[in-house]
């Protein structure tokens, strides 16, 4: 369940989008890509709609790992 917070200042949204740009660049340098559904989750976090923990949980739900099964 998402925790409602006050809207972020534009500077915070910009800072978070810069973090995501760096993350995308790192993934691409390793030969990967960021799928559209993951990008949508990233943008929800950047806008402050979900927490960092919720973002991680949503990505894990989209792409479950079998490493620990």
In total, how many domains does the architecture comprise? 1
Order of helices and strands: HHH
Mean pLDDT: 89
Give the beta-strand count.
Answer: 0
Report strand %: under 5%
Which segments are poorly predicted (pLDDT under 50) over 5 or more consecutive residues? none
Question: Can you summarize the main beta sheet?
Answer: none
Distance between the termini: 25 Å
Task: Please compute the radius of gyration using only Cα atoms.
Answer: 13 Å
- Amount of helix: 55-70%
Tell me the number of helical segments per DSSP (H or I, 4 or more residues long): 3
What is the SS-derived class? Answer: mainly alpha
Shape: flat
Task: Describe this protein's structure.
By secondary structure, the chain is mainly α. It has 3 helices and no strands. The chain has one domain (14-62). It has helices at 10-29, 36-46, 52-62. Helix 1 packs antiparallel against helix 2 (36-46) and helix 2 (36-46) runs antiparallel to helix 3. The longest helix is centred in the N-terminal third of the chain and has 20 residues, at 10-29.
Which tags fit this structure?
0% strand; 3 helices; mainly alpha; 69 residues
Provide a brief overview of the structure.
With 69 residues, the protein is mainly alpha-helical. The chain has three helices and no strands. Helix 1 runs antiparallel to helix 2 and helix 2 runs antiparallel to helix 3.
């Amino acid at each position: 369940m998402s925790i409602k917070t006050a809207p972020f200042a534009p500077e915070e949204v910009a800072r978070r989008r810069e973090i995501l740009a760096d993350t995308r660049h790192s993934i691409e340098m390793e030969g990967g890509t960021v799928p559209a559904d993951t990008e949508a989750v990233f943008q929800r976090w950047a806008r402050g709609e979900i927490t960092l923990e919720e973002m991680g949980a949503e990505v894990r739900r989209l792409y479950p790992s079998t490493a620990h099964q």
